[in-house]
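Hey,
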Amino acid sequence: MKYKYIKINDKKYKFIIGTGEDDKFRISFNSLTKKTFGFNFEQWYQYGYWKNQFLPYSLMDGDVVVSNVSVNIMDFEVFGKSKRYIQLGTVMTDVAYRNKGLSRVIMEKIIEEWKDKCDLLYLFANDSVLNFYPKFGFDILKQYQCTKLISKRGENGLVKKLDMTNECDRALVYDKANTLSSLAKISMCGNAELIMFYCTLDMTDSVYYIQDYDAVIIANFEGDTMEVLNVFCKEDISLDKILDYLVDENIKREKLYFTPKETDSYLIMPIEGEGTLFALGEGTLLLANNQFMFPKLSHT
């Protein structure tokens, strides 16, 4: 990997755009990720999903990653238009290196490199850093979520719960996730690797296959609510018909974590508590003028 040294407050740091193939970098990057967020990317890498859409921009003290902002190159279909977006994620700095301007330096370099190469730079931030991103020109965008009450039981049909430790089941989900969803107003294109990150990490018990429609559904069940994270189907089929397969007499409410193309039957409300969306670039206007939600499984 190529790198250069940057001097910040009289100390030299190695600035590097990391890749999973470099074992020493990956181990250190994973260590800081685990310390900061409680997970790491090792299994994702071992399954072969860490590819060139995911680029950690890191500052290293010697051979140790101490600060990072990851660039995620993402293509979307947004209200019928193809867009190249850059999502920033895994924003983290080791506790011993905070308040030294390291994240600021990385952010400035990313914005300089990518602002003219994409339609939008965006990220999701927690409440502790809401004053940080406006310094770089980011604006807050409001997101909206679709929910509705369910008044009838589902269709009778075969529903298979997929096993994410099984290679064949993972291959099935990966294939379906590479299909542009015709059911959503904003669909991530060609980044099944990110979907697999979720499916093999904390949603291993949430992946279903509907054979009748050759569709994969990722959904959680909380009390009387079905939380639908995404639906992948090659055919333009009614979302209700697909979701009906997962509805039983205990489910009274449906909550979507993406914006369906057909919203007439849904209550649309502003999202609270899901992280603040910040955006920078010409594409901001298109999103600001619509009620939308980035698919939850496209978050990094």
